[in-house]
Write a structure and sequence with these properties.
The chain is mainly β and about 55 residues long. The protein contains no helices and four strands. The chain is about 0% helix and about 35% strand. About 0% of the residues are buried.
C-alpha cells in the first residue's frame, strides 16, 4: 500500500491481487513524497514539472 504525502490531494493505493489501481494524475508542479505503509523505510520522491515533451 502506498501513500502520497502532499499538502493537497492525498491518496492511498491499496494492494489488491489481480486488480488495477486507477491512475493518479499529478496536475500541479512541485515535489511529491510517496511512502509505503508496509515498509516504513521505503520512500520515493517525484518531481512534477512542466515540459514540452509530455502532456
Amino acid at each position: 500500500m502506498f501513500i502520497l504525502f502532499r499538502p493537497r490531494n492525498d491518496f492511498e493505493l491499496p494492494l489488491y491481487v489481480g486488480m488495477r489501481a486507477a491512475p493518479i494524475i499529478f496536475d500541479q508542479e512541485g515535489f511529491v513524497t510517496l511512502g509505503c505503509n508496509i515498509h516504513d523505510g521505503m520512500i520515493a520522491y517525484v518531481a512534477v514539472l512542466t515540459t514540452p515533451y509530455f502532456k
